[in-house]
Write a structure and sequence with these properties.
InterPro entries: AB_hydrolase_1, AB_hydrolase_fold, Lipase_euk
Structural class: alpha/beta
CATH topology: Rossmann fold
Pfam family, one: Abhydrolase_1
Oligomer: single chain
Keywords: Glycoprotein, Hydrolase, Lipid degradation, Lipid metabolism, Signal
Largest sheet: 9 strands, mixed
CATH class: Alpha Beta
Number of helices: 14
Order of helices and strands: HHEEEHEEHEHEHEHHHEHHEHEHH
Radius of gyration: 20 Å
Family: Belongs to the AB hydrolase superfamily. Lipase family.
Strand content: 5-15%
CATH architecture: 3-Layer(aba) Sandwich
Organism: Pseudolycoriella hygida
Length: about 400
Amino acid sequence: MDESIVFVVCCLTLRCNILLTDGADYITTKLSEKGYRNEVHSVLTADRYILNVHRIPCTGRFSKPVILVHGMFSTGAQYIITGNGIPKSNSLAFRLADYGYDVWIVNARGTDFSLNHQTLSPDSPQYWKFSFHEIARYDLPAIIDHILLYTNHTFLHYVGHSQGTTVVMAMLSLLPEYNAKLKTLHLMSPAVYYDSASVLLKGISTLSTLLEDGTAVLRVDKLPSYVELRKIVAYLCSSISTTICKQMFNAFVGPSQYFDEAILRLPNSLDIIENVPAHAVSLGQLFHYAQLIRSAKFQHYDHKQEENLSIYNQSTPPVYKLSNVKTRIHFLYGTTDAVVNYQDVERLVKEFQPWTIRVDKIDNFNHLDFVAANKVNELVNTKILKLISRYRRN
């Protein structure tokens, strides 16, 4: 039996999988402040990473579990962005909980809330030797199995943003038996194809070939996030020039007519900029995406020819078998997203026409709007809720 399954079964027997921590973390604090009962579940992966999953429990007869999976530079906190002038309904986690769903907020390996490992320290370079492939291969299956075993359900609904979409498509390509465990997929800015990537992304991906060699020599395995620099950015954005900050965001994620300026006001800016993004990211994650851009293929990590032969028994990395993905999919994407071009999403939509239950193409919507737009409840959350409700009792 898979090691992660053994762990979950043991924890269910001993009731040890709910961790009532002595010191509340950012997510538990925010959930409690809003009046939501919450739990932190510890999940062990087959490669021994320990992941913390935050839960807003609801155990009614028709309360189905919904899993929320974040993007690469983020954490599960992106689904509970709140503050002065930011409506609670803009948070997808709160909307789902208010409608009676059992909400599970994922924190992937390496994020602030899931830094533990049975034998490795986050200070060890070996800890950071992963890309989105390992999140797809180990994190998601362990979390999904834990949720289904704990709640005694046979399926759940999946919502992912950016990397959260990449990993579920990779997981289902690798482990097609998980199709039966996912009733619906809601993919916000699905990051699979990069044929039409921006000039900026293509330039960065080309530069990354030099960085891969350089970081190997220097033994650098993660991209740190400088906390003090975050504070400076938060203060500058809120007190000097909101316009300049908006232009900075637009340069990286695309222009938007839905930018929520409330996010940049104090104390919101300090709270959100300091706590929602991940404080460190594995370079393997960055390099893997860069490889997708350069190759124009949705493929496994390229370890270079000699190591590829050892791992894959071929000189180049294999592509993920998207033909294995066979579950209902809801696509949501923006026309001004600078990270995931809408044309690449439409290519993906065409490939999955038999499995597509809805397509929402949102004009003047960028990459971050799916969690931070001032109209995110109307344009995104409500649409996801309606579709999940359609399949609630089936």
